[in-house]
Amino acid sequence: MNVRQTIAALIAGFILAVLGGLVSPASAQGDALAAYDGALSQFKAVLAERRRQIDAKQKLPNLPGQALYLARNLVMSTYKDLTDAQPSRIGRPNKYGIPPQYFDADNEPLLDEYRKLFDVMQAAPANAQNSAAPFKDVADLGRAVARARGLDAANAETAGRISLALFFAETNGNQNIGNARSNKYKGSFQTGVSEDANGRRKWAAIKPRIAAFDPEMIARDDKEEARLGNLDSRYNHWLNVRNGLMNAHAELFTQIPAIAKTLPDPIDQMKFFELIQIVPSPTKAALRSGNLLGYRVSDPRIMGYLRNNSMFAYGAADRARTSATYREIMDAMWLFNEKFERALAEYEKVKPAR
Fold it and tell me: How many CB atoms lie within 10 A of CB 308?
């Protein structure tokens, strides 16, 4: 049985047993502890195997990060089941900002190793075209696109801040990386080929408007286009950020004033735009509804996309959910909080002086 099948079997069995009232509380605690201990051992084994392969310079399997990701999820899922069954197991806060009912802080070194392995597996190729100021580039592009869409200075600043948050959400602030869990998405904004091309077309249409108020940006853009040569444009930081923003987010920049009114918290604004990246259609529908936070999603396919991006993904109770409002969805995006806090801090360093 592979990791995915193990997760499915454990979660399905626990949901049926606990929600069906087929086990006593004591038995449930014992079963939850056994499931967690097994998941923790499996996570350690997968981490050790991938580290051994990397250190020995062995060829890694296709999608080498997927087994690690699923094993990590299983640890968090079974720990949430354990703390649901035995709340006294909830411990101290952890440095990753994960709610303590989902993660035992004693296991922080395992997540440290998890991140280090992904850094290796997703490292940018040697010929990637980096930027010397990747955070500033993202903010500048977001701000310029917003101005070209007619936003005033204050709302354009919000667009720049949101753009930087998307960079952190997609790549943890690392430019030009690959993807250890997908063969489709690459680059600083993790776009597919068609998404990148669509963003390029949209940029061509808006470029003259930007040239009118920021000719220096257009000169930089022309320089990056000439620099690209035959390289995949997703491995040029400037171009992939530009195309990623234009593909999915720029059209909603005009609605930033209304979005900010409904979501005054900058972190919530960042979460909303990240949901445009993950589940664009229902997120746009929620915005159009006039009741963004109360808009409910119940499509199993959409709930699956959310779970694949770490919302309602951990523990039997969360995974048993069949629907959620956008307020509940954004509250469930706690794994993004650390990244968005870092984006806020970095934006303060690169925003224009007043």
Answer: 13
Helix or strand (DSSP H, E) at 344: helix 337-350
pLDDT tens profile 291-329: 999 999 999 999 999 999 999 999 999 999 999 999 999
**What does pTM read for this prediction?**
0.90
Measured CA to CA in angstroms, residue 325 lies from 5, 259, 269, 328 at distances of 29, 16, 16, 5
C-alpha pair distances (Å), 147 with each of 152, 250, 292: 7, 11, 25
H-helix or E-strand spanning residue 324: strand 324-325
State the Rg of the chain over Cα: 22
d(CA 299, CA 304) in angstroms, rounded, equals 9
From residue 122, how far is each of 63, 180, 181, 350 by CA, in Å? 10, 6, 9, 26
Place of tokens 């589940």: 279
**Torsion over CA: 337, 342, 345, 349 (sign):** negative
